[in-house]
Amino acid sequence: MAEEEVKLYGTWRSPYSRRVEIALKLKGVQHKYYEEDLTNKSPALLKYNPVHKKIPVLVHGEKVIAESHVILEYIDETWKGYNILPKDPCEKAKARFWARFIDEKCIPALKKACASIAEEREKAVEEACELLQLLEDELKHKKYFGGDCIGLVDIVANFISHWLKVVQEVVGVELLTIKKFPRLCEWSEHFVCHHAVKDCLPPKEKLLAVFHSHYGSATTSKC
Amino acid sequence: MGEVKLLGTTQSFPCARIQWALKLKGVEYEFIEEDLGNKSSLLRKYNPVHKKVPVLVHHDKPIAESLVILEYIDETWKDNPLLPQDPYDKAVARFWAKFADEKVLIAVWGAFTAEGEEKEKAIKSALEPLAYLEQQIEGKKFFGGEKIGYFDLVVGWLSQWLNVMEEVGGMKLLEAERFPLLHEWGQNFIQAPAIRECIPPREKLVEYFHFSLTYGRSLAANKP
């Protein structure tokens, strides 16, 4: 079953589809990658994810899985070897909790702070930093959120390690700084150099160009 | 007793999900009713990040977020599995759980709070995600098959809670004519013993949703 063909539909610039690439790499799973043009969605994507019409979508044999968290857990349960989630139910629950926190609270607040201008910006930055502080505290003295090895929370936090830095530079907002979040910054350095991660990051120059055109004078956030 | 505690409120459906799961598994627990207008030091200690219910405390270790708690319960107490064993079937259940909590709930809430011209449009928007659920239940007594499973608990609020929201919010969504399968599911679900015991009294829900409606509408009115 695990030997059936694996296909991933994603985009080069999406942190959500890059997460799936990291997981597949950690498990040593070969796959075929299909780059989607989200302005002109392929018949395959529309067929495989008719509900949301979004990437990433993982196709494993005849099985289709959508939503990055759902895909990550499917990958962890289907291919043995590397543990993306802890085995202990309580530690697993903690990992899932923080993964949700990042996607449901942290990333929206970071995007809002980056898209805000003038009077709104200060408050939005403050709110986003409060949330980053919770991650800083959760990291404690661990190398990764997963401990000595990267795990679910690290993978889900990929946006913070790379995309956030690029957006910060483009819009001139100070969110993830060494002064405010030394542990998160150190985590980020280790994470982006990890063998399973470094080839799963979009080239900085390409991202910069995209964000310059989006954030240039726009007030809506797109990542 | 004392080994498993659940911090929650009677009217909260995310809390009901957890009570249902524990009862289906035959797990003894202590229910600690929280006053969300005056949060206890216990709640602040066990869920410092969100300060929300439900929080399950097992061996003094807290777990928060209802879907996270459901999976923890399923992995810790093996009797009467809630989720399928197969990774793909599990993924399907998790996908629909996310859909229900994001699309269905938000659309229903939108229809609940909408007024005037916006109301009809909001109701129509809420019918779309519900139609997906009608498709999912086809050929089955429960979403979990013959027995109540994870996804039944996730959308359990479509029974009593939605019914009260329809009355208080002046809207009709889950009608037998439009969604016969979902309607029948709701009747079967609410009659199951472990489920019935944790359905809050209707009057309490009516009071709760009247308050929520006023609050929800005032929030919408104050949005820039």
Please write out the topology.
The complex is a heterodimer of chains A (223) and B (224).
Chain A (H helix, E strand, L loop, with lengths): L5 E5 L4 H13 L4 E4 L7 H6 L8 E4 L2 E4 L1 H11 L10 H27 L2 H22 L12 H5 L1 H14 L10 H12 L10 H12 L8
Parallel strand pairs in A: 1-2
Antiparallel strand pairs in A: 1-3, 3-4
Chain B lengths: L3 E5 L4 H12 L5 E4 L7 H6 L8 E4 L2 E4 L1 H11 L10 H27 L2 H22 L12 H5 L5 H10 L10 H12 L1 H4 L5 H21 L2
Parallel strand pairs in B: 1-2
Antiparallel strand pairs in B: 1-3, 3-4
Helix pairs in contact in B: 1-3, 4-5, 4-7, 5-8, 7-10
The low-pLDDT segments of chain B are none
Termini separation of chain A:
35 Å
Structural class of chain B: alpha+beta
Biggest sheet of chain B, open or closed, and with what strands and sense? Answer: 4 strands, mixed
Derived from helix and strand composition plus strand pairing, the structural class of chain A reads alpha+beta
Helical content class of chain B: 55-70%
Q: What strand order characterises the main sheet of chain B?
A: 2-1-3-4
What is the radius of gyration of chain A? Answer: 17 Å
Count of individual helical segments of chain A = 9
- Strands of chain A, total number: 4
User: What gross morphology of chain B would you assign?
Assistant: globular
Task: Supply database-style keywords.
A: about 220 residues, alpha+beta, about 10% strand, disordered C terminus, B: alpha+beta, four-stranded mixed beta sheet
